[in-house]
């Protein structure tokens, strides 16, 4: 209990010390070093921001193979931090027309510790001003002052990055030059996996990825891909998916791309079915060339039926077809065509089949025609597959179109198709896409049911004198 009380007391001092240093307090008030050392000794913060060497001891918090990232005391949860620590950048009372924070009264000051304790108690119930004022004041610092501020946060930058205002402050400092980028990178790189899924820290990581150099980017890639499932879990997170997409956009070296694709591959099915993860896969397809995406194409072809019948998966599958070339595309199209009958009847899979049909690849369309033959009536009377039959009447070769129309004409109860809520659209498409003797045979079969067409709510399109006289 005593340790918890002391810890809370130390954490409560941080905002006032930080604002004192940033916003015009004396040098002693702005020095965080004594507090950082005490927090480090209690195990609250790290005393060293430098990334550990590979294979470092228990002090390393880079994810290691076999570790449960979600179970880590540092991982994927801001609650562990925010439950005990107020914001480093929460606003403090302002007095004076210029809007700057006033230093603590001289009568209160005895030592840095006592001054902060007394000021914190005194101002605890005071009305605070908007954080925008403190943010504007911090933005007015010169570059040299910014560097000193970052150096003062050494050992505590990870916690600053998980704070709303602290994250914004660090993002602003990234614009100040290479020295500031290096300082921030040294302070947060060890915690990349945790920050990428943090509600605030993910924004810092996105910006850091855009400004870091090639060596720093490779260091992050190596850390994030050391355990394949770490990057998968980050990609499934609502905040992490954005950071991973930014990581993918920033990759340039072939080795970086290979490591990321290899790391994502074990979670491919889970990623494409997830509302967050599917965007990561699509970003890979968009950012990398066909050869780099080969593992994704192979997995998509192998699991095309399962993928195509899922709301997010059907979009990814179509994107795979669009981005693939040569043998990769052929393999995908053949796999989809072989499962065409099942996909055509699915709420999402029918869109994949129609997409393949629009490519007008003879081998694929011929395979689909063989699967559908003798089943067009069944397909026409279903909500989703009726759309596929309509597409067949538009893109198939004339011989295959004739087979569809002959199958429609062979049914003993054509009037049921005419009045059916879905099959009537197929009849209408058949009238539009037929000609010659086939068109005449179809119109002759429909004419005896003209009175039915006039009264049925589903036959308005078919009941067209111009169309029947064509």
Automatic annotation (TrEMBL):
<dbReference type="InterPro" id="IPR033133">
    <property type="entry name" value="PUM-HD"/>
</dbReference>
<keyword id="KW-0677">Repeat</keyword>
<feature type="repeat" description="Pumilio">
    <location>
        <begin position="335"/>
        <end position="370"/>
    </location>
</feature>
<protein>
    <recommendedName>
        <fullName>PUM-HD domain-containing protein</fullName>
    </recommendedName>
</protein>
<feature type="repeat" description="Pumilio">
    <location>
        <begin position="371"/>
        <end position="407"/>
    </location>
</feature>
<dbReference type="GO" id="GO:0005737">
    <property type="term" value="C:cytoplasm"/>
</dbReference>
<dbReference type="InterPro" id="IPR001313">
    <property type="entry name" value="Pumilio_RNA-bd_rpt"/>
</dbReference>
<keyword id="KW-0810">Translation regulation</keyword>
<dbReference type="GO" id="GO:0003729">
    <property type="term" value="F:mRNA binding"/>
</dbReference>
<comment type="function">
    <text>Sequence-specific RNA-binding protein that regulates translation and mRNA stability by binding the 3'-UTR of target mRNAs.</text>
</comment>
<dbReference type="InterPro" id="IPR011989">
    <property type="entry name" value="ARM-like"/>
</dbReference>
<dbReference type="GO" id="GO:0006417">
    <property type="term" value="P:regulation of translation"/>
</dbReference>
<dbReference type="Pfam" id="PF00806">
    <property type="entry name" value="PUF"/>
</dbReference>
<feature type="repeat" description="Pumilio">
    <location>
        <begin position="187"/>
        <end position="223"/>
    </location>
</feature>
<feature type="domain" description="PUM-HD">
    <location>
        <begin position="123"/>
        <end position="470"/>
    </location>
</feature>
<dbReference type="InterPro" id="IPR033712">
    <property type="entry name" value="Pumilio_RNA-bd"/>
</dbReference>
<feature type="repeat" description="Pumilio">
    <location>
        <begin position="263"/>
        <end position="298"/>
    </location>
</feature>
<dbReference type="InterPro" id="IPR016024">
    <property type="entry name" value="ARM-type_fold"/>
</dbReference>
């Amino acid at each position: 209990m005593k340790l918890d009380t002391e810890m809370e007391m130390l954490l409560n001092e941080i905002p006032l010390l930080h604002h004192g240093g940033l916003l015009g307090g004396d040098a002693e008030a702005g020095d965080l070093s004594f507090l950082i050392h005490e927090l480090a000794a209690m195990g609250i913060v790290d005393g060293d921001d430098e990334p550990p060497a590979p294979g470092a001891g228990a002090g390393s918090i880079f994810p290691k193979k076999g570790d449960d990232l979600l179970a880590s005391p540092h991982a994927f949860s801001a609650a562990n931090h925010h439950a005990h620590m107020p914001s480093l950048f929460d606003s403090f009372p302002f007095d004076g027309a210029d809007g700057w924070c006033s230093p603590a009264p001289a009568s209160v000051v005895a030592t840095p510790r006592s001054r902060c304790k007394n000021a914190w108690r005194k101002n605890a119930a005071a009305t605070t001003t908007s954080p925008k004022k403190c943010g504007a004041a911090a933005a007015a610092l010169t570059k040299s002052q910014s560097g000193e501020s970052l150096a003062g946060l050494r050992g505590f930058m990870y916690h600053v990055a998980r704070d709303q205002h602290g994250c914004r402050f660090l993002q602003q400092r990234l614009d100040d030059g290479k020295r500031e980028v290096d300082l921030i990178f040294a302070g947060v790189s060890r915690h990349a996996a945790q920050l990428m899924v943090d509600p605030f820290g993910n924004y810092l990581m996105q910006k850091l990825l855009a400004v870091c150099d090639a060596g720093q980017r490779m260091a992050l890639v190596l850390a994030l891909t050391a355990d394949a499932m770490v990057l998968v879990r980050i990609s499934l997170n609502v905040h992490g998916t954005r950071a991973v997409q930014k990581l993918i956009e920033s990759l340039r070296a072939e080795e970086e791309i290979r490591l990321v694709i290899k790391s994502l591959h074990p979670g491919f099915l889970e990623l494409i079915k997830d509302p967050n993860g599917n965007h990561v896969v699509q970003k890979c397809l968009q950012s990398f060339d066909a050869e780099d995406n080969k593992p994704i194409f192979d997995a998509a072809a192998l699991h095309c039926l399962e993928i195509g019948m899922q709301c997010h998966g059907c979009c990814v599958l179509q994107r795979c077809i669009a981005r693939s070339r040569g043998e990769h595309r052929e393999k995908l199209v053949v796999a989809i065509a072989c499962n065409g009958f099942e996909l055509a009847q699915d709420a999402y899979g029918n869109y994949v089949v129609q997409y393949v049909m629009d490519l007008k690849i003879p081998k694929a369309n011929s395979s689909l025609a063989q699967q559908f033959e003798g089943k067009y009536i069944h397909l026409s009377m279903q909500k989703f597959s009726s759309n596929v039959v309509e597409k067949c009447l538009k893109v198939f070769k004339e011989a295959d179109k004739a087979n569809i129309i002959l199958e429609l004409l062979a049914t003993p109860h054509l009037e049921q198709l005419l009045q059916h809520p879905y099959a009537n659209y197929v009849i209408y498409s058949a009238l539009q896409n037929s000609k010659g003797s086939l068109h005449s045979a179809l119109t002759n079969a429909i004419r005896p049911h003209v009175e039915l067409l006039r009264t049925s709510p589903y036959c308005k399109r078919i009941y067209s004198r111009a169309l029947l006289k064509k």
